[in-house]
Design a protein that fits this description.
Blueprint: H1 4-10, E1 15-17, E2 23-26, H2 28-34, H3 42-45, E3 46-50, H4 57-62, E4 67-72, E5 79-85, E6 93-99, H5 104-109, H6 123-189, H7 197-227, E7 234-237, H8 238-248, H9 250-256, E8 259-263, E9 269-272, H10 274-290, E10 299-306, E11 311-318, H11 325-328, H12 351-361, E12 365-371, E13 375-383
Parallel strand pairs: 8-10
Antiparallel strand pairs: 1-2, 1-6, 3-4, 4-5, 5-6, 7-9, 10-11, 11-13, 12-13
Protein backbone atom coordinates (compact mmCIF):
# COMPACT_ATOMS: atom_id res chain seq x y z
CA UNK A 1 0.00 0.00 0.00
CA UNK A 2 2.96 2.37 -0.42
CA UNK A 3 1.49 3.87 -3.60
CA UNK A 4 -0.94 6.20 -1.83
CA UNK A 5 -1.31 8.46 -4.91
CA UNK A 6 -2.81 5.50 -6.78
CA UNK A 7 -5.26 4.96 -3.93
CA UNK A 8 -6.09 8.66 -3.81
CA UNK A 9 -6.90 8.77 -7.53
CA UNK A 10 -9.22 5.77 -7.38
CA UNK A 11 -10.64 6.11 -3.84
CA UNK A 12 -10.67 9.76 -2.67
CA UNK A 13 -12.51 8.70 0.52
CA UNK A 14 -9.98 6.10 1.69
CA UNK A 15 -8.48 6.04 5.19
CA UNK A 16 -5.29 4.02 5.85
CA UNK A 17 -4.86 2.79 9.44
CA UNK A 18 -2.17 0.93 11.39
CA UNK A 19 -2.76 -1.80 13.95
CA UNK A 20 -3.57 0.76 16.66
CA UNK A 21 -6.13 2.38 14.31
CA UNK A 22 -3.96 5.47 13.94
CA UNK A 23 -4.50 7.34 10.68
CA UNK A 24 -1.48 6.90 8.36
CA UNK A 25 -2.94 8.49 5.23
CA UNK A 26 -6.29 9.47 3.70
CA UNK A 27 -7.97 10.53 0.49
CA UNK A 28 -8.33 14.08 -0.77
CA UNK A 29 -12.13 14.13 -0.60
CA UNK A 30 -12.48 12.77 2.94
CA UNK A 31 -9.94 15.35 4.10
CA UNK A 32 -11.93 18.07 2.35
CA UNK A 33 -15.02 17.31 4.47
CA UNK A 34 -13.76 16.06 7.80
CA UNK A 35 -10.33 17.73 8.17
CA UNK A 36 -8.49 14.53 9.12
CA UNK A 37 -5.00 14.69 10.60
CA UNK A 38 -2.28 12.04 10.24
CA UNK A 39 -1.32 10.47 13.57
CA UNK A 40 -4.79 10.96 15.02
CA UNK A 41 -7.01 8.04 16.05
CA UNK A 42 -9.63 6.79 13.63
CA UNK A 43 -12.10 6.72 16.55
CA UNK A 44 -11.76 10.51 16.98
CA UNK A 45 -13.54 11.07 13.66
CA UNK A 46 -15.54 7.92 13.01
CA UNK A 47 -17.56 5.16 14.64
CA UNK A 48 -18.36 1.81 13.03
CA UNK A 49 -22.16 1.45 12.79
CA UNK A 50 -22.19 -1.79 10.80
CA UNK A 51 -21.07 -4.52 11.37
CA UNK A 52 -22.12 -4.25 15.01
CA UNK A 53 -19.49 -4.37 17.81
CA UNK A 54 -16.46 -3.69 15.58
CA UNK A 55 -13.97 -1.78 17.71
CA UNK A 56 -10.43 -3.07 17.11
CA UNK A 57 -8.03 -3.73 14.24
CA UNK A 58 -8.64 -7.49 14.55
CA UNK A 59 -12.43 -6.92 14.52
CA UNK A 60 -12.07 -5.00 11.23
CA UNK A 61 -9.90 -7.75 9.73
CA UNK A 62 -12.55 -10.31 10.63
CA UNK A 63 -15.16 -8.40 8.63
CA UNK A 64 -12.96 -7.20 5.75
CA UNK A 65 -15.16 -8.92 3.16
CA UNK A 66 -18.35 -7.38 4.62
CA UNK A 67 -19.92 -4.00 3.87
CA UNK A 68 -19.17 -1.29 6.46
CA UNK A 69 -21.22 1.76 7.42
CA UNK A 70 -19.27 4.42 9.30
CA UNK A 71 -20.84 7.25 11.35
CA UNK A 72 -19.06 10.59 10.93
CA UNK A 73 -18.76 12.06 14.45
CA UNK A 74 -19.64 15.72 14.75
CA UNK A 75 -21.44 15.78 11.38
CA UNK A 76 -24.98 14.89 12.33
CA UNK A 77 -26.30 11.73 10.72
CA UNK A 78 -23.75 11.72 7.89
CA UNK A 79 -22.53 8.20 7.09
CA UNK A 80 -19.94 6.62 4.77
CA UNK A 81 -20.51 3.22 3.15
CA UNK A 82 -17.56 1.06 2.13
CA UNK A 83 -15.31 -1.93 2.79
CA UNK A 84 -12.13 -2.77 4.67
CA UNK A 85 -9.14 -4.04 2.71
CA UNK A 86 -5.89 -5.49 4.02
CA UNK A 87 -2.87 -7.17 2.48
CA UNK A 88 -1.59 -10.32 4.14
CA UNK A 89 2.01 -9.17 4.63
CA UNK A 90 1.25 -5.80 6.32
CA UNK A 91 -0.13 -4.54 9.64
CA UNK A 92 -2.21 -1.96 7.84
CA UNK A 93 -5.88 -1.84 6.97
CA UNK A 94 -7.60 0.49 4.54
CA UNK A 95 -11.18 1.71 4.59
CA UNK A 96 -12.48 2.34 1.04
CA UNK A 97 -15.75 4.21 1.04
CA UNK A 98 -18.12 6.77 -0.37
CA UNK A 99 -20.51 9.12 1.47
CA UNK A 100 -24.18 8.14 1.57
CA UNK A 101 -25.99 10.92 -0.27
CA UNK A 102 -29.56 11.05 -1.58
CA UNK A 103 -29.24 13.79 -4.17
CA UNK A 104 -27.56 16.91 -5.48
CA UNK A 105 -28.58 18.86 -2.38
CA UNK A 106 -26.51 16.50 -0.18
CA UNK A 107 -23.49 16.94 -2.45
CA UNK A 108 -23.89 20.72 -2.25
CA UNK A 109 -24.19 20.57 1.55
CA UNK A 110 -20.94 18.59 1.75
CA UNK A 111 -19.32 20.94 -0.78
CA UNK A 112 -18.66 18.01 -3.13
CA UNK A 113 -18.89 17.50 -6.88
CA UNK A 114 -18.83 14.34 -9.02
CA UNK A 115 -15.02 14.42 -9.37
CA UNK A 116 -14.74 14.07 -5.58
CA UNK A 117 -16.56 10.72 -5.60
CA UNK A 118 -14.72 7.38 -5.92
CA UNK A 119 -14.73 5.23 -9.04
CA UNK A 120 -15.28 2.15 -6.84
CA UNK A 121 -16.27 1.58 -3.23
CA UNK A 122 -13.83 -1.30 -2.84
CA UNK A 123 -10.63 -2.58 -4.34
CA UNK A 124 -12.42 -5.89 -4.87
CA UNK A 125 -14.91 -4.25 -7.22
CA UNK A 126 -12.08 -2.51 -9.03
CA UNK A 127 -10.05 -5.69 -9.49
CA UNK A 128 -13.17 -7.63 -10.49
CA UNK A 129 -14.08 -4.98 -13.06
CA UNK A 130 -10.53 -4.96 -14.42
CA UNK A 131 -10.50 -8.77 -14.61
CA UNK A 132 -13.86 -8.77 -16.43
CA UNK A 133 -12.57 -6.27 -18.99
CA UNK A 134 -9.37 -8.28 -19.51
CA UNK A 135 -11.38 -11.51 -19.90
CA UNK A 136 -13.76 -9.84 -22.37
CA UNK A 137 -10.80 -8.47 -24.35
CA UNK A 138 -9.15 -11.88 -24.44
CA UNK A 139 -12.36 -13.58 -25.55
CA UNK A 140 -12.92 -10.89 -28.21
CA UNK A 141 -9.41 -11.44 -29.57
CA UNK A 142 -9.92 -15.22 -29.61
CA UNK A 143 -13.27 -14.79 -31.39
CA UNK A 144 -11.71 -12.40 -33.91
CA UNK A 145 -8.94 -14.93 -34.60
CA UNK A 146 -11.48 -17.72 -35.08
CA UNK A 147 -13.53 -15.50 -37.41
CA UNK A 148 -10.38 -14.69 -39.38
CA UNK A 149 -9.63 -18.40 -39.83
CA UNK A 150 -13.28 -19.11 -40.68
CA UNK A 151 -13.36 -16.26 -43.20
CA UNK A 152 -10.19 -17.52 -44.90
CA UNK A 153 -11.70 -21.02 -45.05
CA UNK A 154 -14.97 -19.60 -46.39
CA UNK A 155 -13.08 -17.75 -49.13
CA UNK A 156 -11.36 -21.01 -50.11
CA UNK A 157 -14.71 -22.83 -50.22
CA UNK A 158 -16.33 -20.03 -52.23
CA UNK A 159 -13.42 -20.02 -54.66
CA UNK A 160 -13.69 -23.80 -55.13
CA UNK A 161 -17.46 -23.52 -55.44
CA UNK A 162 -17.20 -20.76 -58.05
CA UNK A 163 -14.81 -22.91 -60.08
CA UNK A 164 -17.08 -25.92 -59.78
CA UNK A 165 -20.20 -23.92 -60.79
CA UNK A 166 -18.36 -22.35 -63.72
CA UNK A 167 -17.21 -25.72 -65.06
CA UNK A 168 -20.55 -27.43 -64.41
CA UNK A 169 -22.72 -24.73 -66.01
CA UNK A 170 -20.49 -24.28 -69.04
CA UNK A 171 -20.23 -28.04 -69.61
CA UNK A 172 -24.00 -28.34 -69.23
CA UNK A 173 -24.56 -25.37 -71.51
CA UNK A 174 -22.49 -26.96 -74.26
CA UNK A 175 -24.43 -30.23 -73.97
CA UNK A 176 -27.77 -28.40 -73.84
CA UNK A 177 -26.94 -26.41 -76.99
CA UNK A 178 -26.00 -29.61 -78.82
CA UNK A 179 -29.22 -31.30 -77.67
CA UNK A 180 -31.33 -28.31 -78.73
CA UNK A 181 -29.68 -28.13 -82.16
CA UNK A 182 -30.07 -31.88 -82.78
CA UNK A 183 -33.75 -31.81 -81.84
CA UNK A 184 -34.27 -28.84 -84.12
CA UNK A 185 -32.56 -30.70 -86.97
CA UNK A 186 -34.74 -33.76 -86.30
CA UNK A 187 -37.88 -31.63 -86.47
CA UNK A 188 -36.79 -30.09 -89.75
CA UNK A 189 -35.46 -33.22 -91.47
CA UNK A 190 -37.60 -36.10 -90.23
CA UNK A 191 -40.68 -36.89 -92.20
CA UNK A 192 -43.05 -36.94 -89.26
CA UNK A 193 -46.78 -36.77 -89.70
CA UNK A 194 -48.20 -33.57 -88.25
CA UNK A 195 -50.09 -33.99 -84.93
CA UNK A 196 -48.89 -37.60 -84.67
CA UNK A 197 -47.46 -39.03 -81.43
CA UNK A 198 -43.91 -38.67 -82.79
CA UNK A 199 -44.55 -35.03 -83.70
CA UNK A 200 -45.93 -34.35 -80.19
CA UNK A 201 -42.95 -36.03 -78.49
CA UNK A 202 -40.44 -34.11 -80.62
CA UNK A 203 -42.29 -30.88 -79.88
CA UNK A 204 -42.17 -31.49 -76.14
CA UNK A 205 -38.50 -32.49 -76.30
CA UNK A 206 -37.65 -29.35 -78.27
CA UNK A 207 -39.48 -27.10 -75.79
CA UNK A 208 -37.87 -28.87 -72.82
CA UNK A 209 -34.36 -28.48 -74.25
CA UNK A 210 -35.07 -24.79 -74.89
CA UNK A 211 -36.19 -24.33 -71.27
CA UNK A 212 -33.10 -26.21 -70.04
CA UNK A 213 -30.85 -23.95 -72.10
CA UNK A 214 -32.56 -20.84 -70.71
CA UNK A 215 -32.30 -22.16 -67.15
CA UNK A 216 -28.55 -22.77 -67.52
CA UNK A 217 -28.11 -19.32 -69.06
CA UNK A 218 -30.04 -17.70 -66.18
CA UNK A 219 -27.99 -19.67 -63.64
CA UNK A 220 -24.72 -18.49 -65.20
CA UNK A 221 -25.92 -14.87 -65.11
CA UNK A 222 -27.11 -15.28 -61.55
CA UNK A 223 -23.80 -16.81 -60.47
CA UNK A 224 -21.90 -13.87 -61.99
CA UNK A 225 -24.16 -11.34 -60.26
CA UNK A 226 -23.95 -13.03 -56.86
CA UNK A 227 -20.19 -13.62 -56.74
CA UNK A 228 -18.71 -10.72 -58.68
CA UNK A 229 -17.17 -7.98 -56.54
CA UNK A 230 -16.98 -4.25 -57.20
CA UNK A 231 -18.28 -3.22 -60.61
CA UNK A 232 -16.02 -1.24 -62.97
CA UNK A 233 -18.47 1.40 -64.13
CA UNK A 234 -18.07 3.60 -67.18
CA UNK A 235 -20.23 5.90 -69.26
CA UNK A 236 -22.36 3.74 -71.56
CA UNK A 237 -24.73 4.78 -74.33
CA UNK A 238 -28.31 3.67 -73.66
CA UNK A 239 -29.17 3.65 -77.37
CA UNK A 240 -26.08 1.60 -78.32
CA UNK A 241 -26.67 -0.95 -75.55
CA UNK A 242 -30.35 -1.16 -76.46
CA UNK A 243 -29.45 -1.83 -80.11
CA UNK A 244 -27.07 -4.61 -79.04
CA UNK A 245 -29.74 -6.20 -76.83
CA UNK A 246 -32.30 -6.01 -79.64
CA UNK A 247 -29.88 -7.74 -81.99
CA UNK A 248 -29.48 -10.62 -79.51
CA UNK A 249 -33.28 -10.86 -79.21
CA UNK A 250 -34.05 -10.39 -82.91
CA UNK A 251 -35.71 -13.83 -83.26
CA UNK A 252 -37.99 -13.22 -80.24
CA UNK A 253 -38.78 -9.69 -81.44
CA UNK A 254 -39.66 -10.94 -84.92
CA UNK A 255 -41.79 -13.83 -83.67
CA UNK A 256 -43.73 -11.58 -81.32
CA UNK A 257 -44.18 -8.85 -83.95
CA UNK A 258 -43.09 -6.41 -81.27
CA UNK A 259 -42.79 -2.66 -81.80
CA UNK A 260 -40.08 -0.94 -79.76
CA UNK A 261 -40.36 2.84 -79.50
CA UNK A 262 -37.29 4.77 -78.32
CA UNK A 263 -37.15 8.25 -76.86
CA UNK A 264 -33.57 8.70 -75.69
CA UNK A 265 -32.57 12.08 -77.09
CA UNK A 266 -32.68 13.95 -73.78
CA UNK A 267 -30.27 11.64 -71.91
CA UNK A 268 -28.24 8.82 -73.41
CA UNK A 269 -25.07 8.38 -71.29
CA UNK A 270 -25.31 6.43 -68.05
CA UNK A 271 -22.64 5.33 -65.56
CA UNK A 272 -22.77 1.53 -65.31
CA UNK A 273 -20.80 -1.67 -65.91
CA UNK A 274 -21.38 -2.38 -69.66
CA UNK A 275 -22.10 -6.13 -69.37
CA UNK A 276 -24.48 -5.55 -66.48
CA UNK A 277 -26.35 -2.84 -68.37
CA UNK A 278 -26.82 -5.02 -71.42
CA UNK A 279 -28.09 -7.86 -69.23
CA UNK A 280 -30.55 -5.50 -67.51
CA UNK A 281 -31.96 -4.19 -70.81
CA UNK A 282 -32.06 -7.62 -72.41
CA UNK A 283 -33.93 -9.13 -69.45
CA UNK A 284 -36.45 -6.26 -69.38
CA UNK A 285 -37.15 -6.58 -73.10
CA UNK A 286 -37.37 -10.36 -72.85
CA UNK A 287 -39.76 -10.02 -69.92
CA UNK A 288 -42.09 -7.75 -71.93
CA UNK A 289 -42.03 -10.11 -74.92
CA UNK A 290 -42.66 -13.16 -72.75
CA UNK A 291 -45.66 -11.63 -70.95
CA UNK A 292 -47.32 -9.91 -73.92
CA UNK A 293 -51.05 -9.90 -74.41
CA UNK A 294 -52.62 -12.04 -77.12
CA UNK A 295 -55.34 -9.41 -77.63
CA UNK A 296 -53.15 -6.60 -79.00
CA UNK A 297 -49.88 -5.88 -80.74
CA UNK A 298 -47.02 -5.58 -78.26
CA UNK A 299 -45.54 -2.11 -77.84
CA UNK A 300 -42.50 -1.41 -75.69
CA UNK A 301 -41.56 2.22 -75.01
CA UNK A 302 -38.04 2.97 -73.79
CA UNK A 303 -37.52 6.52 -72.53
CA UNK A 304 -34.84 8.37 -70.60
CA UNK A 305 -34.44 11.80 -69.07
CA UNK A 306 -32.03 13.64 -66.79
CA UNK A 307 -33.15 14.30 -63.22
CA UNK A 308 -32.25 17.33 -61.09
CA UNK A 309 -29.88 15.27 -58.91
CA UNK A 310 -27.65 14.40 -61.93
CA UNK A 311 -29.04 10.88 -62.26
CA UNK A 312 -30.76 9.37 -65.30
CA UNK A 313 -34.25 7.92 -65.20
CA UNK A 314 -34.85 5.10 -67.72
CA UNK A 315 -38.31 3.61 -68.15
CA UNK A 316 -39.39 0.42 -69.93
CA UNK A 317 -43.16 0.40 -70.46
CA UNK A 318 -45.27 -2.20 -72.25
CA UNK A 319 -48.93 -2.95 -72.92
CA UNK A 320 -48.69 -6.60 -71.84
CA UNK A 321 -50.76 -8.70 -69.45
CA UNK A 322 -49.59 -6.74 -66.41
CA UNK A 323 -49.05 -7.83 -62.79
CA UNK A 324 -51.50 -7.79 -59.91
CA UNK A 325 -49.38 -5.81 -57.44
CA UNK A 326 -51.94 -6.21 -54.65
CA UNK A 327 -51.29 -9.96 -54.47
CA UNK A 328 -47.81 -10.22 -56.03
CA UNK A 329 -45.94 -7.23 -54.56
CA UNK A 330 -44.13 -9.30 -51.92
CA UNK A 331 -42.90 -11.77 -54.51
CA UNK A 332 -41.48 -9.09 -56.81
CA UNK A 333 -37.72 -9.41 -57.31
CA UNK A 334 -37.50 -12.59 -55.21
CA UNK A 335 -35.29 -15.38 -56.51
CA UNK A 336 -37.13 -18.27 -58.25
CA UNK A 337 -40.43 -16.43 -57.82
CA UNK A 338 -42.82 -16.56 -60.76
CA UNK A 339 -45.58 -13.93 -60.89
CA UNK A 340 -47.68 -15.70 -63.54
CA UNK A 341 -48.82 -19.30 -63.86
CA UNK A 342 -49.66 -19.28 -67.57
CA UNK A 343 -49.03 -22.80 -68.97
CA UNK A 344 -47.52 -21.83 -72.33
CA UNK A 345 -45.10 -19.28 -70.82
CA UNK A 346 -41.90 -20.80 -69.48
CA UNK A 347 -39.65 -19.09 -66.96
CA UNK A 348 -37.16 -19.75 -64.16
CA UNK A 349 -38.18 -16.95 -61.80
CA UNK A 350 -34.69 -15.45 -61.96
CA UNK A 351 -35.13 -12.53 -64.38
CA UNK A 352 -36.49 -9.78 -62.09
CA UNK A 353 -34.24 -10.86 -59.22
CA UNK A 354 -31.20 -10.65 -61.51
CA UNK A 355 -32.26 -7.24 -62.86
CA UNK A 356 -32.59 -5.77 -59.34
CA UNK A 357 -29.32 -7.33 -58.17
CA UNK A 358 -27.35 -5.90 -61.11
CA UNK A 359 -28.93 -2.45 -60.75
CA UNK A 360 -28.11 -2.32 -57.03
CA UNK A 361 -24.54 -3.46 -57.65
CA UNK A 362 -24.25 -0.43 -59.93
CA UNK A 363 -25.60 1.86 -57.18
CA UNK A 364 -28.97 2.27 -58.83
CA UNK A 365 -32.61 1.61 -57.97
CA UNK A 366 -35.66 0.15 -59.69
CA UNK A 367 -39.40 0.67 -59.24
CA UNK A 368 -42.39 -1.00 -60.89
CA UNK A 369 -45.90 0.13 -61.78
CA UNK A 370 -48.37 -2.32 -63.26
CA UNK A 371 -52.04 -2.93 -63.88
CA UNK A 372 -53.60 -6.22 -64.92
CA UNK A 373 -54.43 -6.39 -68.66
CA UNK A 374 -53.01 -2.90 -69.25
CA UNK A 375 -49.26 -3.30 -68.94
CA UNK A 376 -46.16 -2.81 -66.83
CA UNK A 377 -43.61 -0.03 -66.44
CA UNK A 378 -40.15 -0.49 -64.91
CA UNK A 379 -38.31 2.67 -63.83
CA UNK A 380 -34.53 2.57 -63.35
CA UNK A 381 -32.39 5.31 -61.82
CA UNK A 382 -28.62 5.27 -62.44
CA UNK A 383 -25.74 7.74 -62.09
CA UNK A 384 -24.48 9.67 -65.08
CA UNK A 385 -21.52 11.75 -63.88
CA UNK A 386 -17.98 10.38 -63.84
CA UNK A 387 -17.32 11.99 -60.45
CA UNK A 388 -19.82 9.54 -58.95
CA UNK A 389 -17.57 6.61 -59.78
CA UNK A 390 -15.94 6.88 -56.37
Amino acid sequence: MEDHSFMNDLFPFYVLLNKELVIINFGKSIEKIYGLQKGESFNKYFEVDRPISVKTFDDMLGYKDSPFIINCLGHGDQKIRGQMYSEADTDLICFLGTPLVSGMSDLARLNLNFTDLPIHDSIGQFLLSLQMHQTALKETRQMAEKMKVSYARLEEINESLDGFIYKLTHDLRGSAINLFNMLEMLQQNLDVEENSNNDTVLGYAHKSSKRLLQTIKDFIELSKAEHSGTRVRELCSISTTLASAKEDLQIEIKESDCEIIENLQEADAVLVAPDDFKSIIQNLLSNSIKYRSEDRKLKIVVESYMRSDDTIHISFSDNGIGIDLKTQKRKLFQMFSRLHSIPNISGTGVGLYLIKKLIEKNRGSILIESEVDKGTSFSIVLDTELNKMI
